[in-house]
Amino acid sequence: MSEWWSYGLADFLLFSPRVYFRLFETMNTTWGLAVVSALVAGVIAAGLAMRHGHRGNRVILVVLSLIWAWVSYGFMWQYYQPINWVVPYVLPGFVAEVVLLAVFAARPLPLRFGWRGDFSSVVGAAFIGIALVVYPFVGLFEGRDLMQAELFGSAADPTAFGTLGFVLMARGTWRWLLVPVPLIWCLIASATLWVMDQEIAVVPLIAVWLTVFCCWLDLKNGVTTRRMTQAELVEPTD
What we know:
By secondary structure, the chain is mostly helical. Helices cover 64% and strands 2% of the residues. It contains nine helices and two strands. The longest helix has 24 residues, at 57-80. It starts with 16 loop residues before the first helix and ends in a 5-residue tail after the last helix. Residues 4-8 and 230-238 have low confidence and may be disordered.
């Protein structure tokens, strides 16, 4: 028997690119209304996230929690789990992300989203924009049909990618609890796409590096530890 170190990443991938991308086509055609609704909800959440101090902070967290619940069950369990042996091991992390988002939404003072004008805000807004607008059309450059588009809110890769963007747009000491699961998934997604010779494999990897850098930068600048002002803590009444 060959030694374990003689195996490469490709030896652990038990499906072909054709089978993988057919998952999205099947999901998009079978659950079209749910897929579109999740994407629209993501767009609305993105708009609210850009409005500093808006009462939509709790709405954003509820939307993201529902989206992660749908991705966990609709895509990961129903479609991806039968062909990928890794899914059962990471699915508890997805469920934990759902619970964390719900807990933050239920807190009296949820995370505060909004444009701060710093580097992390720029990166976060870029991540959200790429997840919502770019990911659906990436397949066209790879020669795939538009029906095989990976959409934020239903497909795991753009959802994890976009969630990192939402976290970078937020303030709050405990916001980094939301980072590990999407960060780990981006690493898994990058490895999977790289084995399948997909050029987009570098995108999740760059997202991981930038997120870690922004975490360090925000900690250094006090974004996660600086107390919010009274104006930021009060919800607007209009």
